[in-house]
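Before the break, one more example. Copy the sequence into your notebook; we will annotate it together after we see the structure.
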Amino acid sequence: MSSVQLAFSSEGVRTLSSLGVGERGVVVDVCGRTRESAGRADRLLALGVTPGASVTMLQTFPGVVFLCDQTELVVERAVARTVLVRIDKASGAGRSIERANRSKAAVEETVRAQVSPEHMENHS
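Here is what the structure looks like once it is written out:
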């Protein structure tokens, strides 16, 4: 099972999946506690998502798109939950963008629910 970790306090550490667009941080840990997540952790490590690597969130929906050092990567949300990141305090501006993205996602979900396949058949 894979788990690589930098020796830091846990203050300000969040999962990669919880970052908002524009937020930056440094990878602290790539967790692989189960057999399945250990494989994911190994693949992430091979792609350069290693402790000490800088990350910047580029997109949170539908997939998690982030920049890791100079490489743009796309992962599923479950995979992004296995990466622990220490937030760069200077990127706090990303929080307002994160709130806007959550609002946008809520609106998109509402529209999807209202425009169900049955609704489309009745208006075709």
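The beta strands are 3-5, 13-15, 24-31, 54-59, 64-68, 71-75, 83-87. Residues 3-122 form a domain with the SH3 type barrels. fold (CATH 2.30.30.90). Try to locate both features in your own notes.
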